Amino acid sequence: MAGLKPQELLIILVILLVLFGGSKLPQLARNVGRAQKEFKTGLDEGMSEDTDDSSEEKSS
Fold first, then answer.
1. What does the alpha-carbon distance between residue 29 and residue 32 come to, in Å, rounded to a whole number?
2. For 2-59, how does the pLDDT look when each residue is reduced to its tens digit (9 = 90+)?
3. Which among 8, 19, 46, 59 could disulfide-bond with 4, CB atoms 3.0 to 4.6 Å apart, if both were Cys?
């Protein structure tokens, strides 16, 4: 998947501005950032559990 071009980002920003209004955008950005952080944390926890499980199986 290729990255977004600046023109595409501008179009997305304008659409978000129309849909949510200027006052809601900072809150929306914070919520997206928090969700992304929680998702990454969940992935890291899942990967560490997989690593722990595989190391336990090898020692048995």
1. 5
2. 688 999 989 998 998 898 888 888 898 899 999 999 999 999 998 887 776 666 665 5
3. 8
HEC string of 32-47?
Answer: HHHHHHHHHHHHHHHH
Which DSSP state fits 22? T
Please report where in the chains the tokens 């048995």 appear, as a residue. Answer: 60
Angle between helices 6-20 and 25-59 (to 10 degrees): 110
3-state secondary structure of 3: coil
Tokens 């006052």 correspond to 23
> In this structure, are residues 28 and 18 in contact, taking their beta carbons and an 8 Å threshold?
no
